[in-house]
């Protein structure tokens, strides 16, 4: 007689049915995720037939979340994270506030308490990591500027929810609920004697402690382990080390520091991304990541009761409206207020117009604390399923609205021009910048230039090089992928190819075959290396000048065929020495005053 194997049954039923319905969905040109959700509903307790173990399915889904966030961390540096904080922090906070207000409003209409409204609203305000990352990956947006903003925004939401999960049990009494009794809640809560601010303080201190431990210890230990394992030459051990580190750090972060699993995994990935082996690490975790993120959708489907759509119709519609319309509008207005292009605002709105795993956890906690009525949990579940189903449609709607909105913004331009200090990107320019990007509409057109220089990156380094080329009347064009820099390029009247230079179509639009010189002014030596290889293949005679930040990078780039590599730190030292010796040449930035040292 076969013994009882619920874990195997859940994995087999989940993956098997997800495959069948995913393939069916694909056949009908519907996103496969719809098929995964349907598979979940079928193996869930609300439909007849086989019922999988919901608890196990949930835990399996968590592994998917860990691996996804780990993958994102691998593509993210601390610098990337800090570079979007100016918009991600206020954006996420304002959006959470707005969605919570709407939630409280709906709760009031339904006759719930204020506490119930707060939990409900918070649950509606936080987007699902899995859904957002899947959407960005499918559209290859993760490594664009708008993708970075969306991910940064998500991380701030994640942090806010960690705080909410810890605070709710402490505040339950005040809000008209019950102090926690079950294990899960009491694990998260702290003694009541701490007081509200005490609890906030301890929580923040724990998050900070985790970050410090990762930056100080993790940063040394993790690369060391990877290097050690890579030198053993065993592929299997390397894969194992990557998995062990991702899962181990995430789990440790959750158990020891009360940080969410997703956040822990993100940090593990981010630390690993500093190591040169990170690209291999990323590839090793791909297949598992895809399999487990499918189980996430199956586990969500399992929670859904299709019959609630009939019994709860109107409140469900209202919930969905808050998630899809309310949150999107808030995000759109905030991003536009920060003077980003319309396309960026639309993309961010669409990607955040859904809710998922964190909302379920909050809802469960709320019901457990007797704050949220059971109906609230049903509404959140239905809202999650429907908003996840509608998410691909949101991206379509956004694509369809873009030209229309841009035209309207273009008409408004003359009014904007009369303002004394214009925004970084005038609405009138936006349309042409976007047209220049040609992001979603196939490869960019090829330049007519020949015998020119190709300058890659127009940031702190590239923009100065560009100015010098212009001064010397040398023909050149720039490849750049950040929206803000593209607007600046347009202001400067420089020919531009928009997009990531490591992309084959983008690079060949710059006519490397006919170019005389390639100047790499981007900080990432890995990407630069790829581009050097591509350039050498297209044009053996091209003169390549590259930028580096360490001796190892200099060697790496020279090895791949760069003619000259300028090392940033060495040049900084040279500048300092010149100032010390009183021989400073005229500084590039007129704002810096150089005073010769008295002899
Ligand atoms: P900075 O470090 O300030 O010189 O900025 C580097 C600039 O290069 C930024 O504006 C980036 O958007 C841009 N950049 C970095 N990588 C790429 C790439 N692969 N393709 C195009 N532009 C890039």
What does this molecule look like?
This protein has 25 helices and six strands. With 599 residues, the chain is mainly alpha-helical. It folds into two domains: 7-406, Na+/H+ antiporter like fold (Up-down Bundle); 427-592, NAD(P)-binding Rossmann-like Domain (Rossmann fold), CATH 3.40.50. Strand 2 (476-480), helix 21 (483-492) and strand 3 form a beta-alpha-beta unit. Helix 6 (114-125) packs across helix 18, helix 10 crosses helix 12 and helix 17 (357-368) crosses helix 18 (374-417). The termini are far apart. Adenosine monophosphate binds at residues 456-462, 479-482, 485, 500-502, 521-524, 527.
Number of domains: 2
* Approximate helicity band: 55-70%
Ligand names: adenosine monophosphate
> Which CATH class of the largest domain applies here?
Mainly Alpha
Number of strands: 6
- From the structure provided, what is the oligomeric state, counting identical versus distinct chains? single chain
DSSP strand content: under 5%
Main sheet: which strands, in order across? 3-2-1-4-5-6
CATH topology of the largest domain: Na+/H+ antiporter like fold
Q: State the shape.
A: globular
What are the segments in which pLDDT stays under 50 over at least 5 consecutive residues?
181-189, 412-441, 590-599
Mean pLDDT: 82
Number of helices: 25
User: How far from one another are the termini?
Assistant: 95 Å
CATH-derived architecture of the largest domain: Up-down Bundle
Radius of gyration: 26 Å
Largest sheet, described in full? 6 strands, parallel
| Protein structure class | mainly alpha
């Amino acid at each position: 007689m076969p013994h009882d194997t619920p874990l195997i049954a859940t994995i087999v039923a989940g993956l098997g049915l997800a495959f069948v319905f995913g393939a069916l969905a694909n056949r009908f040109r519907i996103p496969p995720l719809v098929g995964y959700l349907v598979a979940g509903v079928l193996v869930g307790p609300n439909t007849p037939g086989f019922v999988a173990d919901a608890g196990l399915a949930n835990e399996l889904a968590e592994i998917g979340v860990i691996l996804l966030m780990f993958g994102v961390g691998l593509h993210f540096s601390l610098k990337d994270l800090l570079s979007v904080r100016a918009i991600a922090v206020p954006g996420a906070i304002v959006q959470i506030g707005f969605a919570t207000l709407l939630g409280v409003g709906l709760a009031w209409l339904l006759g719930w308490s204020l506490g119930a409204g707060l939990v409900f609203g918070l649950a509606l305000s936080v987007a699902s990591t899995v859904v957002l990352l899947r959407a960005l990956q499918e559209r290859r947006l993760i490594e664009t500027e708008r993708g970075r903003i969306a991910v940064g925004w998500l991380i701030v939401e994640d942090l806010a929810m960690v705080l909410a999960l810890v605070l709710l049990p402490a505040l339950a009494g005040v809000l008209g609920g019950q102090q926690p009794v079950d294990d899960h809640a009491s694990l998260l809560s702290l003694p009541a004697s701490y007081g509200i601010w005490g609890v906030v303080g301890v929580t923040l201190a724990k998050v900070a402690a985790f970050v410090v431990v990762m930056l100080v210890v993790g940063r040394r230990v993790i690369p060391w382990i990877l290097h050690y394992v890579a030198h053993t030459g065993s592929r299997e051990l390397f894969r194992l080390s990557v998995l062990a580190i991702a899962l181990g750090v995430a789990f440790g972060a959750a158990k020891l520091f009360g940080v969410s699993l997703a956040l822990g995994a993100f940090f593990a990935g981010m630390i690993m991304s500093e190591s040169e082996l990170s690209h291999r690490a990323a590839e090793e975790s791909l297949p598992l990541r895809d399999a487990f993120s499918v189980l996430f959708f199956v586990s969500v489907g399992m929670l859904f009761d299709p019959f609630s759509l009939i019994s709860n119709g109107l409140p469900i519609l209202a919930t969905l409206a808050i998630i899809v319309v309310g949150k999107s509008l808030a995000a759109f207005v905030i991003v536009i207020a920060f003077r980003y292009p319309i396309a960026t605002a639309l993309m961010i709105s669409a990607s955040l117009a859904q809710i998922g795993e964190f909302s379920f956890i909050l809802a469960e906690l709320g019901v457990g604390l007797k704050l949220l009525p059971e109906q609230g949990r049903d509404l959140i579940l239905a809202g999650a399923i429907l908003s996840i189903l509608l998410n691909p449609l949101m991206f379509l709607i956004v694509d369809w609205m873009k030209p229309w909105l841009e035209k309207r913004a273009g008409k408004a331009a003359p009014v904007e021009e009369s303002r004394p200090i214009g925004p970084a990107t005038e609405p009138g320019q936006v349309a042409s910048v976007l047209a220049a990007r040609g992001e979603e509409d196939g490869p960019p057109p090829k330049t007519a230039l020949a015998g020119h220089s190709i300058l890659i990156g127009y940031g702190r380094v590239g923009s100065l090089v560009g100015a010098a080329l212009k001064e010397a009347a040398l023909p050149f064009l720039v490849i750049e992928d950040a929206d803000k820099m593209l607007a600046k390029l347009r202001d400067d009247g420089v020919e531009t190819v928009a997009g990531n230079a490591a992309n084959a179509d983008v690079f060949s639009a710059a006519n490397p075959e006919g170019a005389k010189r390639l100047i790499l002014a981007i900080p990432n030596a890995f990407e630069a290396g790829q581009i050097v290889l591509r350039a050498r293949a297209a044009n053996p005679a091209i003169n390549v000048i590259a930028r580096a930040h360490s001796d190892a990078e200099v060697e790496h780039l020279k090895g791949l065929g760069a003619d000259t590599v300028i090392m940033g730190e060495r040049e900084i030292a040279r500048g300092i020495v010149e100032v010390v010796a009183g021989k400073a040449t005229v500084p590039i930035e007129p704002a810096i005053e150089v005073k010769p040292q008295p002899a």
